[in-house]
Give the backbone structure.
Amino acid sequence: MITDYHWMVNAIKEIRSEMVIGAKTAQYGIKATLPKVAGGVGDPNMQEAIRRSKNIKRVAEYEKKLLEVQKLLDKVSGDRELYVLNWMLDGYSMPWIGKVGAFLRQ
């Protein structure tokens, strides 16, 4: 979860920005006049509602994982470990952390 922390934070921001009411609904006016696909939900408004519902569940899952990581942050002891953890949570790659860590040890 630590390696995905930064990605999940950004995913939550992106999903929430898409969920602003009316942000993506304008494009569906034209599609409403098209014929329905056999075997599928043809109503674009219903498809949008289903997509938003899935996104709400996804955000809740990500937030739960982020909270689990945040609850354990105070368990980290030592400055070096804290720096590495914060860099990981900020989304820096392991090679970058290794290079910076080696530089700081000099």
